[in-house]
């Protein structure tokens, strides 16, 4: 049971492939800190699942092991579609070995216990691609359906849920969100994440629960996993469903679930006295990012934002050290 989503985000004319899922594992017992979004032994693709954990985990773990043992599949020169075909073949082979020990239960029901979202960057076609994978009784194996076969569409996304009603509800919520905010003609941003967060917070939806897991694939063929403060910005940092204390959290970037922005990316909008940074060697760079009135300029590139964040962190730490030394000197 779960709800996951993948979509192509477009911001500042740059595309990213984003995956997100809740963290709830159910089936006789309930865990709200289960890993459901998986990094593979190559950085240009991701996989997540909906359905029975007992069916999905053996398949995904076997896939990870198989890729590790296959140099061709590990190589970035092998296109993501070839990985997809291998994935489908491995899953089909594995479920064919399942032995039914429950009287009266159809073997095809057992094999179809989990379905998957898989996607990544295709260097061969120079675009992001997303597929749903599921077991077909007629084919007696795993088949796939591409969700990105119309690359010129303004909004490309797919929800995958178990039961399927969850995905249908998420799609309706997404369309209402876009319509109510008059975003039909806008490029796609983080709206699918907003829908997933709202459904995970909804206590009436038992099977969608726990902190959201988020990862992105970039056109460079690299992936990045993110944490999130949950259930709000004031909540604890979570990564891959697990809760951490602020001092021991993994060194990743964290989302604010209320604003759908990265917490570390929040820069001061106005610096009233920018000359207080004049002693820093990066002062000219800081001044180039802020206007004459001290306000942060619009559309600053992500790498410049990260550089500013690093500079301000280092400056704050240096001021703290200097202040501590000053207090120690005055007290001696």
Would you give an account of this structure?
This protein is α+β, with helices and mostly antiparallel strands. It folds into two domains: 262 residues, Aminohydrolase, N-terminal nucleophile (Ntn) domain (Glutamine Phosphoribosylpyrophosphate, subunit 1, domain 1, 4-Layer Sandwich); 58 residues. It is 32% helix and 25% strand. Strands 1, 2, 8, 9, 10, 11, 12, 13 and 14 form a nine-stranded mixed beta sheet that branches. Strand 5 and strand 6 form a beta hairpin. Helix 5 packs across helix 6. The chain is elongated and about 80 Å long. The relative contact order is 0.13.
How many strand elements?
Answer: 14
Kindly provide the radius of gyration, computed on alpha-carbon positions and rounded to a whole number of angstroms. 23 Å
Pattern of helices and strands: EEEEHHHHEEEEHHEEEEEEHH
Terminal CA distance reads 63 Å
Q: What is the CATH class name of the largest domain?
A: Alpha Beta
Percent of sequence in beta strands: 25-35%
Number of helices: 8
CATH topology of the largest domain: Glutamine Phosphoribosylpyrophosphate, subunit 1, domain 1
């Amino acid at each position: 049971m779960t709800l996951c989503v993948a979509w192509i985000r477009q911001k500042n004319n740059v595309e990213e492939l984003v995956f997100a899922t809740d963290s709830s594992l159910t089936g006789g017992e309930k865990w709200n800190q289960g890993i459901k979004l998986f990094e593979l032994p190559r950085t240009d693709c991701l996989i997540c699942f909906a359905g029975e954990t007992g069916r999905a985990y053996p398949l995904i773990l076997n896939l990870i092991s198989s890729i590790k043992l296959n140099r061709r599949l590990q190589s970035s020169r092998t296109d993501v579609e070839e990985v997809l075909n291998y994935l489908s073949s491995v899953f089909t082979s594995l479920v064919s070995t399942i032995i039914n020990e429950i009287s009266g239960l159809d073997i095809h029901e057992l094999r179809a216990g989990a379905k998957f979202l898989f996607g990544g960057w295709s260097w061969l076609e120079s675009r992001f691609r997303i597929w749903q994978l599921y077991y077909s009784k007629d084919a007696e194996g795993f088949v796939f359906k591409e969700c990105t076969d119309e690359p010129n569409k303004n909004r490309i996304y797919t929800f995958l849920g178990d039961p399927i009603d969850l995905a249908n509800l998420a799609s309706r919520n997404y369309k209402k969100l876009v319509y109510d905010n008059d975003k039909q003609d806008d490029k796609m941003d983080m709206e699918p994440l907003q829908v997933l967060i709202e459904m995970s917070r909804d206590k009436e939806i038992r099977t969608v629960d726990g902190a959201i897991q988020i990862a992105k694939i970039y056109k460079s063929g690299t992936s990045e996993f993110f944490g999130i403060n949950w259930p709000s910005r004031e909540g604890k940092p979570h990564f891959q469903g697990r809760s951490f204390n602020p001092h021991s959290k993994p060194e990743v970037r964290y989302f604010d679930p209320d604003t759908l922005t990265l917490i570390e990316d929040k820069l001061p909008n106005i610096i009233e006295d920018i000359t207080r940074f004049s002693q820093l060697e990066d002062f000219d760079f800081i001044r180039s990012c802020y206007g004459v009135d001290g306000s942060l300029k619009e559309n600053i590139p992500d790498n410049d934002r990260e550089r500013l964040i690093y500079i301000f962190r280092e400056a704050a730490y240096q001021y703290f050290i200097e202040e501590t030394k000053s207090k120690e000197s005055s007290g001696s």
